[in-house]
Amino acid sequence: MPKDHPLMSETLTLANARLILPKGEMTGRVTLQGGEIVELAAGHAVPAGAIDCGGDIVAPGLVELHTDNLERHIRPRPSAHWPHKPAIVAHDAELAACGITTVYDAIRVGSIEGKGGVGWSRYARDLADELLAMRAAGALKISHHIHLRAEICSHTLLEELESFGPEDRVGIMSLMDHTPGQRQFADLGQYATYMKGKHGLSEEVFQEHVRTRQALGQAVRDAHEAAAVAAAQRLGAVLASHDDTLVEHVVRSAGHGIALAEFPTTEAAARACRSHGIAVMMGAPNLVRGGSHSGNVSAEALARAGLLDIVSSDYVPAALLYAAVLLGGIWGDLSRGMATVSRAPAHAAGLMDRGMLAEGMRADVIRFRLIDGVPVMRGVWSAGARVA
């Protein structure tokens, strides 16, 4: 939302609400003005001109660090490509409706050329340009940042990384290795089910796909990983690991200075992250569904073991708030659950001006109520402007 948006100068008070604060809750009101939170006050009083929330929950806007949702909009089917700009607008509106007020849009860098199963076409630079242009034009409701998903085992990673510079404001760079037989796809039986179901591969094509991807990984992994780490430093991006499975993976991540682990696949890896001071992020769909679709460690198990810090909507934007509510139930503390989708991800990305209800913070605020345990959105404000 542009800084000079007229709605940002209006004063708005949400009163008689259940406010989710950094360390607990209180019944009270929050006042937004000039794009910031300017006052918090306790009590049931509803001042003249304020909105009576009738006990609804008011919490900080959600912060999403890793979502594939934009990619889903630009390619709604494996063989169907959608125009990028309307896809960006639709993606933005969907996130706003789900209470997400800050997003790091995951864009893959690194494509797969030639034969051997499913290829990945190049698209990152063009999509980033269009996203940045739409943001500059004021076409978007919420705060968008770029997250580059560096596919280490690909053909074009080095060339694609070179096309990005500090002016692109890349916020996160994640190191991804989707080579069959390790990390997320350590179980080749699960991988076969996934690939055949999604892409309709025959057994022969699937086996060739596995062989070519494993050979590519052996050829480029070390050099490409080093290049991606260097690119993150050049771009000023937070560096994240992805799908750490073994303790050795975490030790390697720590050596790169990584402070954020996306979706570790085992409890051993999550515990190793904790010992190295690396924040653990898990997927909301994993928590909502009761387990990983790839057969990896469950988010609930990590939550109950005290090994879960941040939640990402991953591939279902609406899952993010629901996951926070579920965590609030698991931990008996809704404030702690909400922190995994607001304050913790904001701080992990280096954004210290948002993610909690406090005076002086950016006025990213959501209002919802629980109906049969399900959060139902009643209003979303981004930098003080209502967007849903």
Automatic annotation (TrEMBL):
One of its GO terms (biological process) is organic phosphonate catabolic process. Signal peptide: none annotated. GO terms for molecular function: hydrolase activity, acting on carbon-nitrogen (but not peptide) bonds. This is Alpha-D-ribose 1-methylphosphonate 5-triphosphate diphosphatase. It comes from Roseicyclus mahoneyensis.
